[in-house]
Design goal:
Strand 6 and strand 7 form a beta hairpin. With 199 residues, the chain is of the alpha+beta class. The termini are far apart. It contains six helices and ten strands.
Length: 199
């Protein structure tokens, strides 16, 4: 199937709109003082999920705010040097080029009725593809139910509307607790109100 520039532009617009809406939802659904994410954050760490970020990154700050006081238990790796001008060696070794990046040791599965767009390094690619391109892995843009940017060294396997990436794949950008729970099978706190439940 040949993807035209018009199709790519349409996909990018949809991803940007969904990403903007998701950002407002995440920021607007900060946990109340009574919501305790301690067990959830500990489970993420126990399952091997790793959140790579930088102290100066506004999206990383927003991602941390979702967890409230439980942020100290997140499996977080700081990628910026103290002066904010360079990257730590561990993040260089892991080929982390954007923040936040969530890396999972097990398969990543996303739901999408449409095939994801795989970014290339061509000059006519969308801005989001150009910004997300990494020569060490491919980047796929999903613009359906699980709107996401996924980085992986292997192509996804499709079964119906489920697209599965091999262990070690990464999701680029802020993730909702619900998305993290789906990727790790960690249990969300029972008193959590999901954005879809808020009026």
């Amino acid at each position: 199937m040949k993807i035209t520039q018009k199709t790519i532009f349409f996909i990018v617009i949809i991803v940007l709109v969904i990403g903007t809406v998701a950002t407002f939802i995440i920021r607007g659904s900060k946990p109340s003082a009574k919501v305790n994410y301690d067990a959830f954050a500990t489970c993420l760490k126990d399952k091997g999920a790793i959140f790579y970020g930088a102290f100066w990154c506004p999206h990383c700050k927003a991602q941390k705010e979702v967890f409230g006081s439980s942020v100290k238990l997140l499996p977080y790796v700081e990628c910026s040097t103290a002066d904010g001008t360079n990257q730590t060696q561990i993040c260089k070794d892991k080929n982390i080029l954007s923040y936040p990046t969530w890396v999972f040791p097990n398969e990543i599965s996303l739901e999408s009725t449409d095939a994801p767009h795989k970014c290339t390094n061509s000059s006519d690619e969308s801005d989001i593809c150009k910004q997300s391109f990494n020569p060490n892995y491919g980047t796929w843009i999903f613009s359906s139910k699980d709107s996401a940017l996924v980085g992986s060294t292997t192509d996804p396997v499709q079964k119906g509307t489920t697209w599965t990436f091999a262990p070690g794949a990464r999701i680029l950008g802020e993730l909702t607790p619900e998305m993290l729970a789906r990727q790790t099978s960690c249990q969300l706190p029972s008193d959590t109100t999901t954005p879809s439940q808020t009026k």
